[in-house]
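Practice record 12: protein with 2-OXO-4-methylpentanoic acid.
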Amino acid sequence: MNYANDPVCIKDLEHIAKGVMPSGAWGYYDSGANDEQTKYDNMSAFDSYRLHPRMLRDVSTISTETTVLGKKVRTPLGVAPCAMHKLAHSDGEAATSRAASKNGSIMILSTYSTTSMEKVIAQGDGSTQYWMQLYVYQDRKVSEELVRRAEKAGFSALVLTVDAPMLGRRLVDARNKFNPPSHLRLENFMDPEVVNNADGYVSDLARSASETFGATFGANGDQSLSWENGISWLKSITGLPIIVKGIMTAEDTQLAIAHGCAGVIVSNHGGRQLDGALATIDALPQVVEAAGDKIEVYMDGGVRRGSDIFKALALGARAVFVARPVLWGLAYKGDKGAYLALDLLQKELELAMMLSGTRNIAEIDESYVYQPANRWVRYAPGARHAAANQKKLLAKL
Ligand SMILES: Cc1cc2nc3c(=O)[nH]c(=O)nc-3n(C[C@H](O)[C@H](O)[C@H](O)COP(=O)(O)O)c2cc1C
Ligand SMILES: CC(C)CC(=O)C(=O)O
């Protein structure tokens, strides 16, 4: 393929980023777990859903405005949480924040950000929604401190990632013996007042996480986390809406509802955790069905085209998040590149809407996609027997 130097699509950005990033950092961003089946399936699964466009609908005005958690947003396209944006560009998450804000996109900030949450949110225009992603640590005081800071800084929701009791095994990182460059700091673990001072750590975890992040992650994350000691605990310490990230089944969606969560993100962590897990677009319908109107459903994983966003919305996602495309944009040209990634996807979404005869987000429903029949046996997306099976399973919970 002939890739443009002036990128015209996300594939171009990927190609450019691969050329400019050091191989260790590239490998860390790019890799999935083990054989990367799920990483690739996230992308290719979108291809098996086809569109069913309607004509002559007066598409002279297209709006992607919608609401998420009851608040207006310009677009259902958001930025998924990713560790260490400074591996892509020295402006790191501050640059991503400016890009998200310019596009009117929600930004979810990783706990493992290389820019403090206070600095990141300060780059927004005041109308951008920022959500804080959390991992829960054995030392709950560390997690609680992050929650308090997020509340104070103005984050409007907490996103608890539940698919990573341990990091998946990414063979590329193992081969590269990848560790982040020693000058990078995980600033959310440092005292915001003294964030540029090496003595500013608020926890030992921060110091060791900055040095060997993989091992530290495994050693400090709370692997005994459960709905009770995780979600119920979090609810007991904060009034912010809680969104669970990493949900792939109807059963866990029901549990998220039962535990008072505001939303779930259908995610397999970009194929970086359990290799062999279903592609997220294939898991989405069962989650949407189980969620009903009780809880909002978002998704991420493998979104590389505006038409992918369209398909996810048609299958019931309220918002769609992207990770690697934004990192590639950041590597290409800092905030301008990250914005370009979002803008390319945004314009492709608008064009897909126009060419499908849908003028606004509310009009996009499942009648606009052909769903592959029986793509997977357990829950063929949309199949009626799946719903019956699901009810039986849920009755046993
Ligand atoms: C380099 C990288 C770092 C990530 N770091 C985090 C993280 O800190 N927390 C988290 O919940 N998910 C993290 N994720 C997962 C993303 O939030 C998201 O689920 C996934 O990458 C979406 O797929 P996509 O990259 O195909 O868009 C990370 C993903 C990548 C690629
Ligand atoms: C630092 C890691 C815990 C970030 C992550 O979630 C990932 O690399 O997938």
